[in-house]
From TrEMBL:
Gene Ontology MF annotations: oxidoreductase activity
Alphabetized SUPFAM superfamilies for the sequence: Riboflavin synthase domain-like
CDD domains assigned: siderophore_interacting
Originating species: Allocatelliglobosispora scoriae
Pfam families xref list: FAD_binding_9 (PF08021), SIP (PF04954)
Protein name: NADPH-dependent ferric siderophore reductase
Domain named FAD-binding FR-type: residues: 9-141
Amino acid sequence: MKATLITPFRLFRSSVARIEQLSPTFRRVTLVGPELVDFADNGYDQRIKVILPVAGSGRTGFPTTPDWYAAWRALPPEHRSPIRTYTARAVRRDLTDPALSEVDIDFALHGEAGPASRWALNARVGDELALLGPNAAFDGEHGGVEFRPPATATNLLFAGDETAVPAIASILERLPETATGRVLLEVPSAADEIALIAPEGMTIRWLARDGGEPGCRLTPAVMGVFSGTVSTGPADDFEEDDADLWEVPEAVPLGTDPTTVPYAWLAGESGVIKALRRYLVGELGLDRKAVAFMGYWRLGRSEGAEV
């Protein structure tokens, strides 16, 4: 008898249970289904894949075999389900009645331009949606969580645009009550200032863009936080390139770094985050081990179909 391969991530089938409009930009979709009882609750900024219906069909054309990625790539483009990355905003596993298990996903709406925003705008209770998420049956690290500060880090900084708000909100809810620091959130308008749960020591500042370009409020706000920082020397091996930015330091185990350091987590439009990286690491000489930079999207480029 062939043993079943248990993988860190697996496919979960679900359907829409509830939809809540949190603000003009943010819409929460709650998914339900018995398979979600095995959806691991890792919290923080856990990344998952949302497998959207093929345009015009209302259904996903997604392979369910272990070699799903190769099979998905082999499909004709018109039959290939779009795949997008989101944060598991909340996970509620019901071990008593698995059919009641739920996962929340908060979508940042931006019209009908992309398949994810279009799906969220038009979703109705009962609509099917497939997820690739962390498998609770897997005995090991699932991956997909980028918030991994040094164990001694204090004075946290979170900065991002609306696409990063769900991840930052999820991280804030998991921080210890003793955590201190700042949260800078750039959103389209003041009406997008949603309620967040965070330790008392975390100061949250909303930055309404009000029609401005991405980063117009976030960039000066982040620079202002570090305006008193003095570089201790040239940045180590700093390079700038045109690739999408995704630079996350490895976690430092407890006790291996005796130095108390600040830790920054920045995510949003790639060009904005890249400029902040250049400033913080290249000009100020901040330690790369204490800063996570993630480009979630790129201005002027439509959402691609690749994972």
